[in-house]
């Protein structure tokens, strides 16, 4: 194979070879530019600075040059998260371009801050065309910094951008027909749809909603509902919109998880965003926000345990400890209340403010009374169907029986209750409930039955044998409709199963299966009509004559074969054949036309195969799938359905069960009299009313009431905003802790640490070269005085101490990488192992992997200025300025290269790089343990992987709890129930070890973790 491309063999002719050439050649980089980009990639700060200086002096380097991957020096530094190099490049006015977007995608907070604070230079710069080509850019034009940050859901970056006043364009509805949408769709429909999707993905970001929305819960509700509707219209992106809708639902539920008291929960669930709404503070059953959640189908929010706990408390109001009672006591209590519902209803009618009148208004008691009333209605229907009262069956218009007269008030009460419900809720909300549609059908059937019985009683007032009645006789039709209404009435009882935890999921699964049956019937009816038309066309000629009908006397048999004679008979025969009630002889014909019989039998068999083998099994699979979906989310589905049932009894009105709801109460009579008085006597009442309203005292009272209502609304809104503020703070802190806990050890962690150590290499080598040159100069100057020799000795000691300290930093970082143990800066400025948390280092190494150049220089400057007590420095100081370098200092370059090789080998052993697996006996077990001599008892907070430090607390979770002896003092990044505060640019954290204070460690900013 190699010979095919690299040399020509004698056996293979030239025509069998494939000539290769570079079609799309790119501009070659000069050696200086290659060295410049290599220095940026390796983190060689001095090399980058030297290249930039040469570019300004000799103009031999294009500082905006790109590598073969199209990356400029700034993008390479951003990918390596090298903040010092980024700052150096920005100070040299390199071309920025999409660097901010790349920094946001990499979630490098420090780089984002530098780019936001960078002022673009004036004048033209030499920029490669590839950087100016929008087609080459990795980001589409609709991707703005805030949109990309919202896609990444990075709380800190979003906060930085929002504080600078960024905005997101409001997406237009899908059916919007404005000129902008029409023109954009005509120019590029794909870009138009993708742009809308990107905007909605940004708007659905939990961090963006938590930061920018005054009411995050309401925003999540509305956005989730809008995304769900979009998924039905934009079928091409259905899965994406559904995922975003589910994300908004989870966000609202997670916010509710942060509630810590019943008071906070009541404020959240009772909040009404309508400023004109009149809220009764003494009524605990408003639950306006919960009703809104049910309207928007926020099942996770409704089924949240805190919400269900409050609902259960309100539902069993007046029955403390109901769930802890024995089942026999519960049953006896329910039976007693159910039997006494007529007495309780009469007490409420007469004295509604009495003890019994208030007792029946409680939701649980109201539910028992309504259930007892409906069970009584079903019992009366059963008695009516058994005909316990003897009647004349030959009467064409029989009068109602005594049982039917008793049933009539219940029917009127049901109709009146449905009218009130439709009036209170509105037509659309009434229609959205399927049980209301079932009630409408049931009541319509009862009304039709009563109407037909009245018509039969008035029009047919005589006796006539029932056998002589016509098919559409009003009495016969009324009896048929009454029978169907009885079926609906009995099935309506299934809605009460929702209150039970065992029967509720089954009832929900049954409802889903009915939808599957409707889908199946649509396809089945098409197949049924197709085969019915064909079989009827084939067999219409062979209809049995009237002479042969006497053989079977109305029973279908082989001699009386009219199964496919008409279209209606064919439909019936094919339908009943599914249940095996049709024999094969139906395809036979009286004249022995074998070809016709063969074609008919083939068609009949094909129909059975399609209907039984294919369609019926498909229906079974669909029903099984629906049941499994409900079973997987049985708890959420049942709690949501139960909440809808409970909320219907929390509402004001509808206290009395049927038939007592049709009896006018004294309050209703008084309201009716007032209404009639205003309509019948408008003059006197109008003048009295005008005088009353014109009085100054009345106007003052009305004004006071209005002001009091406005003050109450402001107070409730202020309480709600305080609770929402606390919930958002807790949510953000919880998400950061969870993200830090879930992040695992990846190959990227080792790559970043390897890059940091590579930066150390060039720094230490430069320091050693500088020290060597100074020592050579010192050896040549032998005529200096003793004081000068003392000064040179101090300088040499300082340089040697700095070199040894930097080398110790490299050794400790490399050993920590191999042992996967955390690092800590000890009292003498040397990185050592953190033995307190070495056992959990594997799970938290990524939070310590990125030691930025800025921090390294801060450490080196402190070590260099204060000394580190290293071996090399001590030996050099003891020997004096003219002594030869110590063995440790001479071996520093080899030790440094060995540390780099150790880290490289361990990175190469990672899975996916051709090394051993990370399982037992793999790379993870082959990592060497840290030397015992290097282990120290000091602890320190590790660095975050995204440009900041992890909050103190002893673990990478950032929970804010204090650690034991030797731990760093926690910084107030996330105080209890407080928003993450912006740390100052120059702040220090002090650590203590065995009572001795450590050197302060510089901290740039607080940690940023991907949510």
Provide key terms for this protein.
1011 residues; 3-stranded mixed beta sheet; disordered C terminus; ion channel
Describe the structure.
The protein has about 1000 residues and is mainly α. Among the domains are: about 325-500, no CATH class; about 510-630; about 745-780 and about 785-1005, no CATH class. It has a three-stranded mixed beta sheet with strand order 1-2-3, with helices on one face. Strands 4-7 form a two-stranded antiparallel sheet. Strands 5-6 form a two-stranded antiparallel ribbon. Helix 9 crosses helix 12 (about 190-205) and helix 36 runs antiparallel to helix 39 (about 870-880). It is flat and about 130 Å long. The two termini are about 50 Å apart.
Average pLDDT, all residues:
74
Q: In percent, how much strand structure appears in the residues?
A: under 5%
- Could you estimate the helical fraction of the residues in percent? 55-70%
How many DSSP E strands? 7
Shape descriptor? flat
Radius of gyration: 42 Å
Q: Helix count, per DSSP?
A: 42
Largest sheet: 3 strands, mixed
**Order of strands across the biggest sheet?**
1-2-3
Gap between N and C termini:
50 Å
State the secondary-structure class. mainly alpha
Low-confidence spans: pLDDT under 50, at least 5 residues?
A: 782-793, 813-886, 910-1011
Biased composition (Low complexity): 923-938
Biased composition (Acidic residues): 979-994
Region (Disordered): 778-800, 906-1011
GO molecular function, one term: inositol 1,4,5 trisphosphate binding
């Amino acid at each position: 194979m190699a010979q095919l491309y690299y040399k020509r063999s004698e056996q293979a002719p030239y025509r069998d070879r494939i000539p290769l050439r570079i079609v799309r050649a790119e501009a070659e980089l000069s050696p200086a530019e290659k060295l410049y980009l290599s220095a940026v990639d390796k983190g060689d700060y001095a090399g980058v600075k030297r290249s930039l200086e040469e570019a300004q002096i000799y103009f031999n380097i294009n500082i905006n040059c790109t590598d073969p991957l199209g990356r400029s020096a700034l993008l390479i530094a951003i990918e390596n998260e090298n903040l010092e190099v980024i700052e150096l490049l920005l100070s040299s006015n390199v071309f920025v371009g999409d660097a901010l977007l790349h920094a946001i995608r990499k979630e490098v907070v420090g780089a984002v801050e530098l780019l936001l604070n960078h002022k673009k230079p004036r004048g033209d710069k030499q920029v490669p065309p590839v950087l100016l080509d929008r087609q080459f850019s990795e980001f589409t034009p609709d991707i703005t910094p805030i949109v990309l940050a919202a896609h990444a859901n990075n709380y800190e970056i979003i906060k930085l951008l929002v504080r600078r006043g960024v905005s997101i364009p409001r997406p237009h509805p899908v059916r919007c027909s404005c000129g902008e949408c029409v023109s954009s769709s005509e120019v590029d429909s794909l870009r138009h749809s993708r742009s809308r999707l990107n905007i909605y993905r940004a708007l659905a970001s939990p961090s963006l909603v938590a930061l920018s929305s005054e009411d995050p819960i309401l925003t999540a509700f509305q956005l989730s509902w809008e995304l769900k509707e979009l998924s039905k219209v934009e079928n091409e992106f259905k899965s994406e919109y559904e995922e975003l809708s589910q994300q908004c639902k989870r966000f609202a539920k997670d916010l509710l998880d942060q509630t810590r008291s019943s008071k906070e929960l009541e404020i959240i669930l009772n909040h009404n965003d309508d400023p004109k709404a009149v809220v009764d503070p003494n009524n605990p059953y408003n639950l306006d926000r919960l009703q809104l959640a049910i309207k928007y189908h926020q099942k996770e929010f409704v089924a949240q345990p805190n919400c269900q706990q409050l609902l259960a408390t309100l539902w069993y109001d007046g029955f403390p400890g109901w769930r802890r009672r024995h089942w026999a006591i519960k049953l006896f209590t329910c039976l007693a209340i159910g039997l006494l519902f007529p007495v309780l209803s009469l007490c409420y009618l007469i004295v509604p403010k009495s003890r019994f009148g208030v007792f029946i208004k409680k939701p649980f008691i109201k539910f028992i009374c309504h259930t007892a009333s409906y069970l009584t209605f079903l019992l009366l229907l059963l008695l009516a169907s058994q005909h316990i009262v003897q009647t004349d069956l030959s009467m064409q218009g029989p009068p109602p029986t005594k049982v039917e007269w008793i049933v009539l008030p219940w029917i009127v009460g049901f109709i009146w209750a449905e009218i009130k419900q439709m009036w209170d809720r509105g037509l659309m909300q009434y229609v959205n409930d399927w049980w209301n549609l079932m009630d409408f059908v049931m009541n319509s059937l009862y009304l039709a039955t009563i109407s037909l019985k009245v018509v039969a009683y008035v029009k047919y007032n005589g006796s006539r044998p029932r056998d002589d009645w016509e098919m559409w006789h009003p009495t016969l039709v009324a009896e048929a409709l009454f029978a169907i209404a009885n079926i609906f009435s009995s099935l309506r009882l299934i809605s009460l199963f929702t209150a039970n935890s065992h029967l509720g999921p089954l009832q929900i699964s049954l409802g889903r299966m009915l939808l599957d049956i409707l889908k199946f019937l649509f396809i089945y009816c098409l197949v049924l009509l197709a085969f019915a038309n064909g079989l009827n066309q084939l067999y219409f000629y062979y209809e049995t004559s009237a002479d042969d009908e006497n053989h079977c006397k109305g029973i279908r048999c082989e001699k009386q074969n009219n199964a496919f004679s008409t279209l209606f008979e064919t439909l019936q025969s094919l339908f009943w054949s599914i249940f095996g009630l049709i024999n094969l002889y139906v395809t036979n014909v009286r004249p022995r036309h074998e070809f016709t019989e063969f074609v008919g039998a083939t068609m009949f068999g094909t129909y059975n195969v399609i209907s039984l083998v294919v369609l019926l099994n498909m229906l079974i699979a669909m029903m099984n799938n629906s049941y499994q979906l409900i079973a997987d989310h049985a708890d959420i589905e049942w709690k949501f359905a139960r909440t809808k049932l409970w909320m219907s009894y929390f509402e004001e009105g509808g206290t009395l069960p049927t038939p007592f709801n049709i009896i006018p109460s004294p309050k209703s009579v008084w309201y009716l009299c007032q209404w009639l008085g205003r309509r019948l006597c408008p003059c006197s009442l109008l003048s009295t009313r005008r005088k009353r309203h014109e009085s100054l005292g009345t106007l003052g009272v009305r004004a006071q009431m209005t002001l009091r209502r406005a003050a109450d609304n402001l107070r409730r809104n202020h309480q709600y905003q305080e609770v929402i503020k606390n919930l958002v703070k807790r949510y953000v802190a919880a998400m950061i802790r969870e993200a830090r806990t879930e992040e695992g050890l990846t190959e990227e962690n080792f790559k970043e640490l390897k890059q940091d150590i590579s930066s150390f290499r060039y720094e230490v080598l430069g320091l050693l070269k500088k020290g060597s040159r100074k020592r050579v100069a010192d050896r040549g100057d032998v005529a200096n005085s003793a004081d000068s020799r003392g000064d040179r000795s101090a300088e040499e000691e300082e340089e040697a101490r700095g070199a040894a300290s930097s080398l110790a930093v490299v050794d400790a970082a490399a050993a920590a990488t191999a042992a996967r143990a955390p690092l800590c800066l000890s009292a003498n400025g040397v990185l050592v192992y953190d033995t307190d948390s070495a056992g959990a280092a594997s799970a938290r190494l990524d939070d310590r992997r990125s030691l930025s150049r800025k921090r390294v220089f801060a450490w080196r400057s402190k070590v260099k200025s204060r000394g580190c007590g290293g071996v090399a420095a001590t030996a050099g100081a003891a020997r004096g300025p003219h002594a030869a370098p110590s063995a440790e200092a001479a071996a520093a370059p080899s030790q440094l290269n060995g540390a780099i090789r150790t880290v490289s080998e361990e990175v190469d052993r990672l899975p996916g790089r051709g090394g051993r697996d990370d399982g037992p006996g793999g790379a993870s077990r082959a990592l060497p343990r840290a030397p015992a001599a290097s282990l120290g008892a000091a602890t320190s907070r590790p660095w975050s992987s995204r440009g900041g430090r992890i909050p103190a607390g002893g673990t990478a979770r950032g929970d804010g709890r204090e650690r034991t002896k030797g731990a760093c003092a926690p910084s107030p990044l996330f105080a209890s129930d407080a928003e993450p505060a912006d740390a100052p640019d120059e702040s220090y954290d002090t650590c203590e070890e065995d009572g001795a204070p450590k050197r302060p460690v510089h901290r740039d900013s607080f940690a940023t973790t991907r949510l």
